[in-house]
C-alpha cells in the first residue's frame, strides 16, 4: 500500500446478485480493497452507511426501490467525504456528466464498458478525485495488436497459461526453468496491459478462433 | 461547454517537438490551439468567441514562466480557465512560488498520466459555469472570531507560534492539534475554523490525506500544507488533488505566517460568500420552478383525477407533497431542469402513468361494505404480486397496491402498517415512516421509474380511499411521510 493512501473501504449497492458477485470477484482480488457493506436497495444502503463507514460507494443508477442518483445525493449529505462511483445502464452525455459532477459524483461507468475501466476508475476516485474516463469506444484492437507483437515463445506461454496449466508444467513442457516462465509471464502481462490471470484467460478464449490463434 | 462540443485547450509551448507530442497524446480528446508566445496566445483569447477549458504550459524551462504575462493575465481576467503546468522536472521552489502568485492550478511532471489530465480538463470544462468569481477582498463579518487550526505532531513549535500570533493580532484565534485524527475532532467541535495548516509527516493519517478529506467534508476551509522536507511529489499531489491554497515551508516565521493567514482568511470569506450566494440563488430559482411544476401538474391532472373522485384530489395530493421536506435545491437540480428534458418528461410520464392507472380502474364496482379480513387479504395479495397492478383493479385493490408500492420503496413489509377496527371504521396507519427521498415538487436531478411509480401510488392512494368513501390524512416530515386512512367498514 502506497504511503499516505487510505485503504479503500468499499460499499456496493447493486440490485442483481449475479452482477454484484461478478464485480466483487474481480475487485476484491486487490488487497487494498476491503468490502465493508453491500445492499440491493437504496433504502438499505442509507440505513447501513453510517455504521459501515465506507470511503467509496459503488452504486447502480437504476435500483428497484429508488433512484440511485437520489440515494447517492443523500449518502453524500450524510458523509460528504464519500467518493461515489455511479454505474449507469448506458453511456452518459456531457450534459448529464456535468450534472453528476455538480451533484458530487466522482465518476460514472456505464454497463457497456469493460471491467478494467471500472476497477481503474475505482482507484482514481478513492481520494476524492473526479475521474472522467475515455468514453469513446476503444474496442479490442489495442490488446490485439499487442498480442500480435508478442514473440512466438511468448504466445506459446500465453496459450498454455490460458489453458490454466500451472507454471511448473509449462516449464516442463517447454524445457525451461520456472523462473524463465515467470519472466515470460511478466512480459506478456506488461505487453498486453493485463494485471490478472483471469483477464488473460478471457482474452485468449474470446479470440481463440480469431487472431489469437 | 455545450453538451456536444469538444473541450478546448490552449497550449503554450516553446519547442515544436513538445507541441507535436502533446497533440499526439490529446488531439483526439480536445481541440488544441497552440501558441509559441504569450502575446499570440493572449491575442487569441481576446478575439475568441468561446474560452478554452484549460491553458496548458509545456515549457523548455519552467522557471522562465515565473513572470509569464499569459498566466497572470488569465488569472486576473479569465478566472474560469484552468491553468496547468507540465514539465520534465518541477522544482519545489518553482511550485511554491507559482502557487503563491496563484499562477497555476495544477502541475504535473513528465511522463503524464493521460487519464488524470483528461479528467482535470474535462471536469473543469463541464462544471465551469458552477465556478464562482467572487472577489477575494471581503471585509471580515461580525460574529465569533474565526480560528486557524495548526496540525503538527511537534507541539512545542506550535505552542510558540500560537503565542507569537496571539500577540500580533486579534483577528483570529489559533487552535492546534497534534494529529490529523485530533484535528478532525477539533473541527467537529469548533464550527469557526476557517483555515487548516497541517504538517505532512505525522504518525497515523498524513497531512495530505487530511487535506483530501477536508476538501470534501469542509470545502470552505482553506487548506495549507507545511513541511520541513522538500518532497516535490507530495507538494504536487497536494496541489492537484488536495487543491491546497499554499505550500508553506518550515521553519515557520510568525510575520510571514501572519501575512499568509490574513490572505487565507480573506479567501475563506470569499468561498463562504460564494457558497451562500449560490445556495440562496438556487433556492430562489427552484422556488419558481416548483411553482411552475405545481401549476402544470394541476392543469394536466385535475380534470381527469378530480372527475373520478368528485373532489379536488389533485390539489390535496400536491399539498401533501409540499409538506415533505427534501434536500435543498442545488445548482445541478437547476441544470437538470433547464438543460435537459427533465421537466417535460416528468409531466408526460407522470400524467401517462396516472392515466393508465385510472383506465384500469373498475369504476362501477359498488363499494361493498369493507371488512378487516377483506382488506388484509387484498393487502397480502398486493404485496405478494406487485405486477398485478397493471390489470383491471377495484378501488380496494388499487388502494392496497398503492400501499404495497409505498412500503416497497421504503424497504418496509406489511407489518409496518397498523390496521385497527373501531366501530364502523377501519383505520390504517404506517408505524414506520414512508421514505420519500424525492418527490414531484422536490429538486430532481434525474427522472427514474421508482420515483414515478411511488408518486403515482401516492396519488392513487388518495383516489382509491375517496372512492371507498374514506378519508386520508397525511403528515410530511424530513424525506418521510406518515399516512392515516379511515375507511368505512363493518365488523367481521
Please explain how this structure is put together.
The complex is a heterodimer of chains A (213) and B (492). Chain A is of the alpha/beta class and 213 residues long. Chain A has ten helices and five strands; from the N terminus they run βαβαβαβαβαααααα. Chain A has a five-stranded parallel sheet with strand order 2-1-3-4-5, sandwiched between helices. In chain A, helix 2 (42-52) packs parallel to helix 3, helix 7 packs across helix 10 and helix 8 packs across helix 9. Chain A is elongated, with a radius of gyration of 20 Å. The two termini of chain A are 38 Å apart. The mean pLDDT of chain A is 89. Chain B is an alpha/beta fold and 492 residues long. Chain B folds into three domains: 8-129, Rossmann fold (3-Layer(aba) Sandwich), CATH 3.40.50; 147-252, Rossmann fold; 290-488, no CATH class. Helix content of chain B is 48%, strand content 17%. In chain B, the strands form three sheets. Chain B has a five-stranded parallel sheet, with helices on both faces. In chain B, strands 7-6-8-9-10 form a five-stranded parallel sheet, with helices on both faces. The radius of gyration of chain B is 30 Å and the shape is elongated. The termini of chain B are far apart. The chains are: A alpha/beta (213), B alpha/beta (492). Chains A and B meet through helix 2, helix 3 and helix 4 of A and helix 5, helix 8, helix 12 and helix 16 of B.
Amino acid at each position: 500500500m502506497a504511503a499516505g493512501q487510505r485503504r479503500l473501504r468499499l460499499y456496493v449497492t447493486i440490485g442483481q446478485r449475479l452482477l454484484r458477485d461478478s464485480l466483487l470477484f474481480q475487485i476484491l482480488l486487490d488487497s487494498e480493497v476491503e468490502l465493508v457493506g453491500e445492499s440491493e436497495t437504496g433504502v438499505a444502503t442509507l440505513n447501513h452507511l453510517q455504521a459501515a463507514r465506507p470511503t467509496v460507494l459503488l452504486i447502480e443508477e437504476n435500483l428497484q426501490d429508488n433512484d440511485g442518483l437520489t440515494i447517492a445525493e443523500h449518502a453524500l449529505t450524510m458523509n460528504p467525504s464519500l467518493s461515489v462511483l455511479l454505474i449507469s445502464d448506458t453511456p452518459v452525455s456531457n450534459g448529464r456528466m456535468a450534472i453528476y459532477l455538480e451533484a458530487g459524483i466522482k465518476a460514472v461507468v456505464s454497463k457497456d464498458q469493460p471491467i478494467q475501466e471500472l476497477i481503474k476508475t475505482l482507484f482514481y476516485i478513492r481520494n476524492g478525485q473526479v475521474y472522467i474516463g475515455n468514453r469513446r469506444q476503444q474496442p479490442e484492437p489495442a490488446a490485439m495488436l499487442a498480442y500480435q507483437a508478442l514473440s512466438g515463445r511468448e504466445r506459446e506461454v500465453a496459450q498454455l497459461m490460458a489453458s490454466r496449466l500451472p507454471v511448473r508444467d509449462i516449464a516442463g513442457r517447454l524445457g525451461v526453468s520456472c523462473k524463465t516462465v515467470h519472466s515470460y509471464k511478466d512480459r506478456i502481462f506488461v505487453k498486453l496491459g493485463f494485471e490478472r490471470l483471469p483477464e488473460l484467460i478471457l482474452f485468449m478464449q474470446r479470440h481463440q478462433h480469431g487472431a489469437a490463434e | 461547454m455545450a453538451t456536444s462540443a469538444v473541450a478546448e485547450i490552449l497550449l503554450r509551448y516553446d519547442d515544436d517537438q513538445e507541441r507535436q507530442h502533446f497533440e499526439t497524446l490529446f488531439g483526439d480528446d480536445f481541440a488544441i490551439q497552440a501558441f509559441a508566445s504569450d502575446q499570440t496566445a493572449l491575442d487569441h483569447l481576446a478575439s475568441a468567441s468561446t474560452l478554452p477549458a484549460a491553458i496548458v504550459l509545456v515549457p523548455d524551462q519552467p522557471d522562465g514562466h515565473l513572470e509569464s504575462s499569459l498566466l497572470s493575465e488569465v488569472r486576473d481576467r479569465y478566472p474560469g480557465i484552468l491553468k496547468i503546468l507540465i514539465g520534465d522536472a518541477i522544482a519545489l521552489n518553482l511550485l511554491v512560488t507559482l502557487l503563491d502568485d496563484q499562477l497555476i492550478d495544477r502541475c504535473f511532471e513528465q511522463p503524464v498520466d493521460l487519464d488524470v489530465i483528461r479528467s482535470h480538463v474535462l471536469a473543469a470544462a463541464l462544471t465551469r459555469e458552477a465556478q464562482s468569481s467572487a472577489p477575494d477582498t471581503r471585509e471580515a463579518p461580525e460574529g465569533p472570531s474565526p480560528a486557524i487550526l495548526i496540525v503538527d505532531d511537534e507541539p512545542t513549535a506550535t505552542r510558540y507560534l500560537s503565542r507569537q500570533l496571539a500577540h500580533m493580532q486579534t483577528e483570529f484565534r489559533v487552535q492546534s492539534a497534534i494529529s490529523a485524527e485530533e484535528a478532525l475532532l477539533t473541527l467537529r467541535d469548533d464550527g469557526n475554523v476557517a483555515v487548516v495548516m497541517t504538517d505532512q509527516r505525522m504518525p497515523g493519517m498524513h497531512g495530505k490525506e487530511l487535506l483530501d478529506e477536508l476538501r470534501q467534508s469542509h470545502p470552505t476551509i482553506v487548506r495549507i500544507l507545511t513541511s520541513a522536507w522538500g518532497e516535490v511529489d507530495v507538494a504536487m499531489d497536494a496541489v492537484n488533488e488536495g487543491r491546497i491554497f499554499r505550500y508553506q515551508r518550515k521553519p515557520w516565521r510568525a510575520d510571514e505566517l501572519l501575512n499568509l493567514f490574513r490572505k487565507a482568511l480573506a479567501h475563506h470569506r470569499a468561498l463562504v460568500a460564494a457558497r451562500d450566494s449560490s445556495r440562496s440563488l438556487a433556492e430562489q430559482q427552484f422556488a419558481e420552478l416548483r411553482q411552475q411544476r405545481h401549476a402544470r401538474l394541476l392543469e394536466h391532472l385535475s380534470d381527469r383525477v378530480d372527475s373520478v373522485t368528485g373532489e379536488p384530489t389533485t390539489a390535496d395530493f400536491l399539498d401533501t407533497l409540499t409538506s415533505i421536506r427534501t434536500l435543498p435545491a442545488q445548482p445541478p437540480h437547476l441544470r437538470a431542469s433547464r438543460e435537459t428534458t427533465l421537466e417535460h418528461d416528468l409531466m408526460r410520464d407522470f400524467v401517462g402513468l396516472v392515466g393508465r392507472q385510472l383506465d384500469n380502474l373498475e369504476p362501477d364496482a359498488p363499494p361493498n361494505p369493507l371488512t378487516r379480513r377483506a382488506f388484509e387479504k387484498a393487502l397480502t395479495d398486493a404485496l405478494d404480486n406487485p405486477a398485478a397492478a397493471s390489470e383491471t383493479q377495484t378501488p380496494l385493490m388499487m388502494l392496497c397496491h398503492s400501499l404495497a408500492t409505498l412500503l416497497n420503496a421504503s424497504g418496509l413489509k406489511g407489518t409496518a402498517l397498523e390496521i385497527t377496527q373501531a366501530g364502523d371504521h377501519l383505520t390504517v396507519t404506517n408505524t414506520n415512516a414512508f421514505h420519500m427521498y424525492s418527490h414531484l415538487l422536490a429538486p430532481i436531478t434525474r427522472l427514474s421509474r421508482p420515483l414515478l411509480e411511488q408518486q403515482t401510488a401516492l396519488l392513487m392512494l388518495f383516489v382509491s380511499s375517496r372512492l371507498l368513501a374514506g378519508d386520508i390524512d397525511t403528515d410530511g416530515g424530513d424525506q418521510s411521510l406518515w399516512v392515516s386512512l379511515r375507511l368505512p367498514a363493518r365488523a367481521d
